[in-house]
Design goal:
CATH topology of the largest domain in chain B: Peroxisomal Thiolase, Chain A, domain 1
CATH architecture of the largest domain in chain B: 3-Layer(aba) Sandwich
Order of helices and strands of chain B: EEHEEHHEHHHEHEHEEHEHEHHEHHEEEE
Number of domains of chain B: 2
Number of strands of chain A: 16
Oligomer: heterodimer
Structural class of chain A: alpha/beta
Number of strands of chain B: 16
Number of domains of chain A: 2
CATH class of the largest domain in chain A: Alpha Beta
Helix content of chain B: 25-40%
Low-confidence stretches of chain B: none
Mean pLDDT of chain A: 96
Strand content of chain B: 15-25%
Shape of chain A: globular
CATH architecture of the largest domain in chain A: 3-Layer(aba) Sandwich
Shape of chain B: globular
């Protein structure tokens, strides 16, 4: 069942601190945050007022006008990011056999802004005013469907929904499909529900920061941790079998070497949370020891209880101050299912540049005994990275990203 | 595929016409229908006025008042069905390792009913663009992210292994079980509780299908409104429901003496890369999914004893699907019994795929093929054996179940009786 190794050969990024992978990575390494006061609508009446909004994305510059009335903003960004990822990988989908290409995306809440507008029409104007596109523009499968149609990809499709953990689950499903014989998968997620209706729904999690100070609102692992700032965006990645990538002489960023997913026990059972086990499963799956991991991209929930769980998991696996830990999402906010694919893109570029991006604004509580890469990026030998992601309700996912060139080394 | 084989060892179904697997089977094997005029809200403003609703009382099915309050109807259905499937499997969850048990829930539209209701409140009937958070229900986040369904099911059955929601529109129900079977096969979990649930019968769903004329406008005779493969068909009937199965590795299941309903022998999904809602008449991508699933099961078309069709009852689907069967199966397409249970329980979007997998397994269990109800008028473009009106006793050792959905997704799963699927 081991099959082919799955490697990353392209990335397309839409992030609050940079549109396009180059802009985003430069901003990330420079410590530039994209968090600010919401401008998409007036947030002054709501408890939370800050968000990470993707700057300068004009859908009409990237997509044909006929697609605009039938797409939510998150789908438009996903379609553009998929285009950029394919270009980055040097892939022309029209030149490849259609059934050899698939799409797997994660979503957390679908095209919620589109949904709000149609609900408004339904209840204020009547049923006959609802758009013909509502039947698919808001649902969770929309990005996989639209990306497959735009690029003529007839291979396996998939859509997973596990809140913020889903971004890693999508990459793992892409790896399964590659192992079972599909040559190329567009995988990842772009998410957004920055509309009043989505905003109100997010507030009810009780996990959002209400700070109005962009530099002090999202402070994971900090003594002042006060919840997270939501954002929009994410990344789409091109994954290929190592063989297919080699055959066409592709530039390989790295490999999805390991993956693990767990659920926390039901509330009230008094048993420990399962994040650590997810990470251990991923390490075992990759055939690497904790000592071989050069950096951890943390989930970084920024609530004291959840930070503690994550710090404990990292400490148990790596020992106190045992591995550099970073959370560049302090510059984007939490992007729901888009967060983990963006972190994986960051891990791949950290491997490329031998540079661990920083965690801004935050100072880790000494009690957590974390080696947090704060303020400045840290040059380091980076070959193996662990990425962690958690979703509301107890979802834990972990992925091991490894430098190119070792794809066959640890295969059973 | 070589390696570990995956079997269904427990099932539960909650579908229109009755709560429970027995009730479900007696409905569909007797050819009765559960479509009716909508009672959940006043259907007068809508083009389509019929649906397949479940008379479901969550309190009577063991949910606490708090669970009922915090869960959307689709989550309630899922939790009750998942518990039922685990009970049916005879697995002692307390004795097993929860880390080895995972959950997948398929759902096309998540907590649509709850979102529709809550939106109305926070927007004050659609009047406020800046909806008012002070009126938001405390559990609204769980409606925002349908992953909450999987969390609820995992809590209910005691699962702490790999878990997610699979949301590929109307193929979610097949894809959820296919995804879970793969986790068992690769060894990521020993047990998967897999299924799907949708409860979409709400004004926003009715309105969006009205807008593209996908649902039937036929209101005069609700009990015969769903007419797959019939010459007079003019749209599907929206339904709701859930089904869950318990998946285990074959040898482990045998060792504990589990009842083996079926082996998940083959599965594939493909995309038409054509249109979010439209289908090319040639059925090429569904045919490809069928061929790959059969190949994985190492079966020739002649080995198939029954096809549980998508058969939604729209003009284009039934034509598309008929073409796909012919393309994938050749001569066998002309002789194999095919039926659509949507004629009886409606189309519950992401849920129906798992319900149809359960129906397929039950066809093997009872050696009976359920019929296509309401099939009276021949359509020259649908010229296969759709088992009209009356169930048929047939030797059923292998079943193909297919699904087709918005987004262009086409899925196929092959089930086989474990006794005979020796390789």
């Amino acid at each position: 069942m081991s099959g082919a190794a799955a490697v990353f050969t392209g990335m397309g990024v839409a992030a609050p601190n940079g549109l396009g992978a180059d802009h985003w990575w430069a901003a990330t390494c420079g410590g530039t945050s994209g968090i600010g006061r919401l401008t998409r609508f007036d947030p002054s009446g709501y408890p939370s007022k800050l968000a990470g909004q993707v700057p300068g994305f004009v859908a009409g510059d990237h997509l044909p006008s006929r697609l605009l009335p039938q797409t939510d903003r998150m789908t438009r960004m996903a379609l553009a990011a998929a285009d950029w990822a394919l270009a980055d990988a040097g892939i022309d989908p029209a030149a490849l056999p259609a059934f050899d290409m698939g799409v797997v995306t994660a979503s957390s809440s679908g095209g919620f802004e589109f949904g709000q507008e149609e609900l408004r029409k339904l209840w204020s104007q009547g049923a006959s005013h609802v758009s013909a596109y509502q039947s698919f523009a808001w649902f969770y499968a929309v990005n996989s469907g639209q990306i497959s149609i735009r690029n003529g990809m007839k291979g396996p499709a998939g859509v997973v929904v596990s809140d913020q953990a889903g971004g890693l689950d999508a990459l793992a499903q892409a790896r399964r499909l590659i192992r079972r014989g599909t040559a190329l998968i567009v995988a990842g997620a772009v998410d957004a529900s920055l509309c009043p209706w989505g905003w109100v729904a997010q507030q009810t999690s009780g996990r959002l920061s209400t700070s109005e100070e962009p530099q002090g609102a999202y402070l994971p692992f900090d003594a002042g941790a006060c919840g997270y700032v939501p954002g929009e965006g994410g990344a789409l990645l091109i994954m290929e079998s190592a063989q297919a990538a080699r055959r066409r002489g592709a530039r390989v960023y790295g490999e999805l070497a390991g993956y693990g997913a767990t659920m926390d026990p039901a509330p009230g059972l008094g048993r420990p949370p399962a994040l650590r086990r997810a990470a251990q499963v991923a390490l075992d799956d990759a055939g690497v020891t904790a000592g071989e991991v050069d950096a951890v991209f943390a989930d970084a929930a920024a609530s004291a209880d959840l930070d503690e769980v994550e710090a404990e998991a990292i400490g148990a696996l790596f020992g106190p101050h045992g591995v550099p830990v970073t959370a560049p999402k302090t510059m984007t906010g939490r992007l729901y299912s888009g967060a983990a694919p963006l972190d994986v893109a960051g891990a791949l570029l950290a491997i490329r540049d031998q540079l661990i991006p920083p965690t801004v604004h935050t100072r880790a509580r000494p009690a957590y005994r974390l080696d947090l890469v704060a303020r400045q990026p840290r040059p380091a030998a980076v070959r193996t990275v662990l990425v962690l992601a958690r979703g509301h309700g107890g979802f834990n996912s972990a992925a091991v990203i490894r430098a190119a060139g070792q794809e066959d080394a640890a295969r059973p | 595929m070589s390696g570990r084989r995956v079997v269904i060892t427990g099932m539960e179904v909650i579908a229109p016409g009755g709560v429970g697997m027995k009730e479900f089977w007696s409905l569909i094997s007797e050819g009765r229908t559960a479509t009716r005029s909508i009672t959940f809200f006043d259907p007068a403003p809508f083009r389509s006025k019929v649906a397949a609703e479940i008379d479901f009382d969550p309190h009577a099915r063991g949910l606490t008042p708090q669970e009922v309050r915090r869960m959307d109807r689709a989550a309630q259905l899922a939790v009750v069905a998942a518990r039922g499937a685990v009970a049916d499997s005879g697995l002692d969850m307390e004795a097993g390792d929860p880390a080895q048990v995972g959950v997948t829930v398929g759902s096309a539209v998540g907590a649509t009913m709850g979102l529709d209701t809550e939106y109305r409140v926070v927007s004050d009937g659609g009047r406020l663009d800046l909806v008012d958070h002070r009126y938001a229900a405390p559990h609204l986040y769980s409606h925002l992210v349908p992953s909450s369904f999987t969390a609820e099911v995992a809590w209910a059955v005691g699962a702490e292994g790999p878990s997610t929601v699979v949301s590929t529109g109307c193929t979610s129900g097949i894809d959820s079980i296919g995804y879970a079977a793969e986790l068992v096969r690769e060894g990521s979990a020993q047990v998967m509780v897999a299924g799907s649930s949708d409860a979409p019968i709400s004004p926003i769903t009715m309105a969006c299908f009205d807008a593209i004329k996908a649902t039937t406008p036929r209101a005069d005779d609700p009990a015969s409104a769903s007419r797959p493969f019939d010459g007079t068909r003019n749209g599907f009937v929206l339904g709701e429901g859930t089904a869950f199965v318990v998946l285990e590795e074959l040898e482990a299941a045998r060792k504990r003496g589990a009842h083996l309903y079926a082996e998940v022998a083959g599965y594939a999904t493909r995309s038409n890369a054509y249109h979010m809602t439209g289908l090319r008449p040639d059925g090429a991508e569904m045919a490809e999914a069928i061929k790959v699933a059969l190949g994985e099961a190492r079966m020739e078309p002649d080995a198939l004893d029954y096809i549980n069709a998508h058969g939604s009852g729209t003009k284009q689907n039934d034509r598309h699907e008929t073409a796909a069967f012919k393309r994938a199966l050749g001569r066998r397409a002309l002789s194999v019994p095919i039926s659509s249970i949507k004629s009886m329980v409606g189309h519950s979007l992401g849920a129906i795929g798992s319900i149809e997998i359960a129906a397929s397994a039950l066809a093997m269990e009872y050696q009976v093929v359920p019929p296509t109800a309401n099939l009276h008028t021949r359509d020259p473009e649908c010229d296969l054996d759709y088992v009209p009106l009356v169930a048929r006793e047939v030797a059923v050792d292998a079943v193909l179940s297919v699904g087709s959905g918005f987004g262009g997704f086409q899925s196929a799963m092959v089930l086989a009786r474990p006794e005979r699927s020796v390789r």
